[in-house]
Amino acid sequence: xxxxxxxxxxxxxxxxxxxxxxxxxxxxxxxxxVSLKPGVLDPQGRAIQHSLEGLGFAGVKDVRAGRLIExxxxxxxxxxxxxxxxxxxxxxxxxxxYRIERVAA
Length: 105
Prior knowledge:
Blueprint: E1 27-36, H1 43-54, E2 66-74, H2 79-90, E3 96-103
Antiparallel strand pairs: 1-2, 1-3
């Protein structure tokens, strides 16, 4: 039987410091760019490079594929909290780097 104190399976976890407040807050757009660390093989990048060559595009020497994650967060979310999000979920710290950017409205 599941522990009644633990959150239900599939329910979002909300940490005490991140609980939504009753007051309306302004939202800020955050972009997190995730890329492979130098030296990590990039089979997706290789496939893109090969396809570009096959389409007749010359001069492409290397391709590194990554991903862009866009978040809308309350303006009160700190840089440290964003950093924690990246380290714990958004990036695989063993093979990936990330960059956080606050986007102007």
